[in-house]
Amino acid sequence: MEVTRQNFKDSLCPIYSAIEEADFLAIDGEFSGISDGPSVSALTNGMDTPGERYVKLRKHSMDFLLFQFGLCTFRYDQSQSKYLMKAFNFYIFPKPFSRNSPDIKFICQSSSIDFLASQGFDFNKVFRSGIPYLNQEEESQLREQYEERRSQVNGAGTPSYISPNSCKGPVNVPDEHKDFIGRVYSASCGDSCRYPKGIHVETVETEKKERFIQISKVDEEERRRMEQQKYEREQEEMNDAVGFSRVIHAVSKSGKLVVGHNMLLDVMHTIHQFYCSLPEELDDFKEVTMCVFPRLLDTKLMASTQPFKELITNTSLAELEKQLKEKPFKAPRVECSEGFQSYDTASERLHEAGYDAYITGLCFISMANYLGSFLTPPRSHISARSKLLEPFYNKLFLMRVIDIPYLNISGPDLQPKRDHVLYVTFPKEWKTSDLYQLFSAFGNIQVSWLDDTSAFVSLSQLEQVQIAVNTSQYAESYRIQTYAEYLQAKQKNTNINRKWAEDGWADASYKSAGMTSTCSRAHNR
Amino acid sequence: MEVTRQNFKDSLCPIYSAIEEADFLAIDGEFSGISDGPSVSALTNGMDTPGERYVKLRKHSMDFLLFQFGLCTFRYDQSQSKYLMKAFNFYIFPKPFSRNSPDIKFICQSSSIDFLASQGFDFNKVFRSGIPYLNQEEESQLREQYEERRSQVNGAGTPSYISPNSCKGPVNVPDEHKDFIGRVYSASCGDSCRYPKGIHVETVETEKKERFIQISKVDEEERRRMEQQKYEREQEEMNDAVGFSRVIHAVSKSGKLVVGHNMLLDVMHTIHQFYCSLPEELDDFKEVTMCVFPRLLDTKLMASTQPFKELITNTSLAELEKQLKEKPFKAPRVECSEGFQSYDTASERLHEAGYDAYITGLCFISMANYLGSFLTPPRSHISARSKLLEPFYNKLFLMRVIDIPYLNISGPDLQPKRDHVLYVTFPKEWKTSDLYQLFSAFGNIQVSWLDDTSAFVSLSQLEQVQIAVNTSQYAESYRIQTYAEYLQAKQKNTNINRKWAEDGWADASYKSAGMTSTCSRAHNR
């Protein structure tokens, strides 16, 4: 089902009940770009720690726009031994809600846009009909603005001058006009002013965006009714502005298993756009993520893990889906729910978020069911709540890290031994070939560039590490350290920075306060 | 005429001849956003100097994409006493040309995108069919890459290792494979190898993007012919990559009058995207602009200047076009050239760049002809080359500057007297009302905010300036300086910065070198 600004409100009920009844949910996002860094190789290093990778992704990827979101819900029908699915393909765009709402700027990366264009992506639908959204901070601000306006109009607040530059609130009555307005009021009420509290005041905007204050004489009952109507209208306006974020709130509140394929960026973008700016450090990100999505499963990580690793040669989504239809796997029995558009995997609408979410779900079901074949007696259906799936929970695939397969969202990350790794610094003219030559006596090596003048070099034999370090002692053009020495030096630098932060900057406290409130609120909706 | 990637090459000839035959050209651009600053009010200050405004626009507006360019050419047909026009509406997109071409990132501003969407703007056409482009530096780099590849393939260069991170060039033959390739070559030539220099080597890419080296045995004549073919193919590829920039080069080379409406941002974006990154300082920008567009005319500035100023109430493009059809003006006689799509001003396709360029041209003709009514005897047609137009040349409208109407591209800017202006600093809680209160004894004032804690305040009476400064001497919460004092303090800061720049940074020399080359080349094509 395609969901745009036009049919969003009518679709909300079906979306909520689809989430409610589902056994698990699959998601996918399409973005206006991937990496704002100079190049992917500069953005990723094979020896990145999970924390380093997170910091890079946060810095270089969050200014792109998530502009299509796929949500596919899967409900298992026991009686028919099959899944019923409902696919939603949302177009998302931060259309400014009013003059005082945030005017979002986002980056587009030509190569990503060109790629989506070649896949037939409909940009007009995004920009003309995308559903708006607010993150939690923006939502709070908007609610406060409405509250403030209400209290002002109802006479609780004090009208005040607002400087032209910040004049974004309601119309305020300048002192020099109060007298005039008072006289208009007396004149219209005259002596027959029988309504002691019977005045209804409202700011009205014409089609030409001219704003004026409308004052009506009403009796008490009428006034209450009008205020109630106005309140409801405002609530609806606010809900419209919160827009697509309501869908993510519902997913979050459901607490259900959320499946994605290579989903780290999807999760980061979803939280960043619809909840809060991402925290600076990985541990805080993990905490927020667990609040928003308490149970995640990444099919790319699952396919790269035992017992699937040996059976699956290509873990890209399209290839994975094909392989999981063949032996020893079985194509899952999934049908489209009544009244919902079905996707045909033969027609391959790859890179449409709704379709990608759908086949991600298929991959998950196939792999889950395959785990059932190891049980005695074997079972052909494994529920999304099965304990067999627990080893795969909350582990998000990490691309291009040599020895750390995943980011562990619900606990500490793996700490690979890097005893065979050397940290080498050299003149910026050096190329990979120079490194190969330098280490030619030490057998096979693996080079992970850090920047123009440094790289990690992995030796194949551990006992040669010390020899390499020793031989470098008298070298002038390059320098070799063990990975442990490198980490130590880095830790020292970080501590110095931290100390500065504690002494001088107010950043840290702000961050953790923001986190807590996000967390408690994620479950209150 | 709509021009996209699909029909661009076929349209070039008609475009070149339209420019060639024209008496003047009108242009307009549509952008993915206007201001990257926190808000327009923060971006513009009524007391900005032209230099300050330029720096702000350069900083906050150049990361947006100019994605639609309108060019309308006007040729006067003496015999029929009417203009013949040709309108071109170009869709522009920096589609990456190859794996090693720049992957441009650009910003989109939601409010601008939403506005264009509401006008029916076709984003799909931009992203799917936009014409690519290169600026001069990128073009040079590409030409060098081709040259380098040619010399390598022809055996003049030495094959060398290229590190994986920078492997973007041609396929190089690693030392360990040279022997193998040598053997293949001997085997295929065998003893009957009668072609001493008759080997043609070429890198071939299959549809699946697999690349391999194709070695063919050819005689000398055949070899030359193939090299020639290859050379021509490469030249065409390069021209395709330079793409839309070729149109701007042709406009520049023609040296013809280029008319725009409120055209400062159009000119800045055009130079930035198709020539070179904009220089840091205004004077250098003026120099580049005069190289690229030696004769500019801004219809918004013209309409805001005598004798038009008194006659025209609204200088927005759509309103101006309407007013210039009515007395004392006359709707110009303009017809669409044969074979070209005509625009109907009644159907108002405002904010399509080709249409906006067209009605900008109409406005210019009306106003130029009106100047003829002052001649004795009056003339109903004034040529685009008439001396009567000289006062309007190279003066670009400056929005929201109180006392400087235009940026003078071909000379020094106006230096308005600001003797009645005060520079006031105050606590950040202050609002405009506080400033009104502070100056309540001094009659009418005009406030131009600089930031949270400072503003310019213009007094209506000059003699009160010193009184205001004197009364502030004992104030603790705020501080008042004359505009002259403010300038002096600022100049001092700038000089300190300049000194640093000269001592430490290499920026300045790079800049002026780039400028000269841009200038000489702008006229060499």
Provide an overview of this structure.
Two copies of one chain form a homodimer. Chain A has 18 helices and 16 strands. In chain A, helix 6 runs antiparallel to helix 8 and helix 11 runs parallel beside helix 18. In chain A, strands 1, 2, 3, 4, 8, 9 and 10 form a seven-stranded mixed beta sheet that branches. In chain A, strands 14-15-13-16 form a four-stranded antiparallel beta sheet. With 525 residues, chain A is an alpha/beta fold. The radius of gyration of chain A is 29 Å and the shape is globular. Strand 5 of chain A pairs antiparallel with strand 5 of chain B.
Percentage of helical residues of chain A?
40-55%
Strand tally of chain A is 16
Instruction: Please mark out the parts of chain A with pLDDT under 50 across 5 or more consecutive residues, or reply none.
Output: 156-170, 189-195, 501-525
Largest sheet of chain A: 7 strands, mixed
Q: State the distance separating the first and last CA atoms of chain A.
A: 24 Å
> Beta-strand level of the residues of chain A, as a percent range?
15-25%
Number of helices of chain A: 18
Radius of gyration of chain A: 29 Å
- Oligomeric status of the shown chains? homodimer
Q: Which class best fits the helix and strand makeup of chain A?
A: alpha/beta
The shape of chain A is globular
- Pair with the biggest interface: A-B, 41 and 42 residues
Mean model confidence by pLDDT of chain A: 84
Family (chains A, B): Belongs to the CAF1 family.
Cofactor (chains A, B): a divalent metal cation
GO molecular function (chains A, B): metal ion binding; poly(A)-specific ribonuclease activity; RNA binding
Region (Disordered) (chains A, B): 148-167
